[in-house]
Amino acid sequence: MKAKMDGILDRDEARYTITNIQRFATHDGPGIRTVVFFKGCRLHCPWCANPETWKPEPELFHDDSLCTGCGRCQKACPAKAIAISAGKAVISRELCTGCGSCVTACLNKAMEITGQVMTVREILAEVDKDRDYYQVSRGGVTLSGGEVFQQDPVPLLQALKARGYHTAVETEGAYGLEKLQQALPWIDLVYHDVKHCDGKKLKQFTGGDLEEIEEHLRYLKTTDVPVVIRVPVIPGFNQGDLEDIRFYVRHLGFEQMQLLPFHPMGKGKWHKLDRRYPYEQTPMMDKEILADFADEGTRIGGQ
Description:
Elements lengths: L1 H11 L2 E11 L7 E6 L20 E4 L9 H5 L5 E4 L2 E4 L9 H5 L5 E4 L1 E4 H8 L3 H7 L2 E5 L9 H9 L3 E6 L5 H7 L5 E5 L5 H8 L3 H12 L5 E7 L8 H10 L5 E5 L5 H6 L25 E3 L3
Parallel strand pairs: 2-8, 8-9, 9-10, 10-11, 11-12, 12-13
Antiparallel strand pairs: 1-2, 1-7, 3-6, 4-5
């Protein structure tokens, strides 16, 4: 009995670096859901809506529009990573350790740490707040990112299933297959990205390995876990290749794919990380442009 209790304690104290826990989500699985965003991702997609999830460690957001250049952050920084130039704080990303001293010192809330280390117990405390909504709507919890499998989701998934929650995972496939195999017994639904079917283009734009991703998809076809293929539709990358991608998805044995029209809503996060957003001048895509693909099993948006 003691070993079992020790196992429960170990599971509850497992730690994750999380950027956000979003409640009342309706587009990341059935029903009303809570989405837990994991930090860390091997891919670097230039349209990414969550660039703060790339690096595994906590990072500093700096909102230049709120900065007055008062210098309090500069004085507080133990790593000497902040300078004042032209009336604004300038962050040396190479020196910044994400310690948060500048966040405490800033009176204008221009500084913020993105990425918080949380135990399974702490995550469950947030998830449990909406238990009644999950039951009424047949919802549950979705793990997203970044890439969930850059960390080990098994302890959290086990804890969620022990509470009777429906679990979904959003993944890109950029990790070793064994991680998916180990976690799958506690996953009820998988959303899997297929960004492109051209391996060279995928590698060039995102750093992804098509063979690695295809290995995951072929494995998932041998299981009973429902899989939804998602395709982010990106101008200049894959918008003109959707027929080829649909053929590729069907060749792998999947009957449906979900198209996610491009949106620039992550632009502000790129700016807060002092990164240039490659799609700065690209407007949000009107989903009606994709209406011709909404037949033969292809969906646009939704769950």
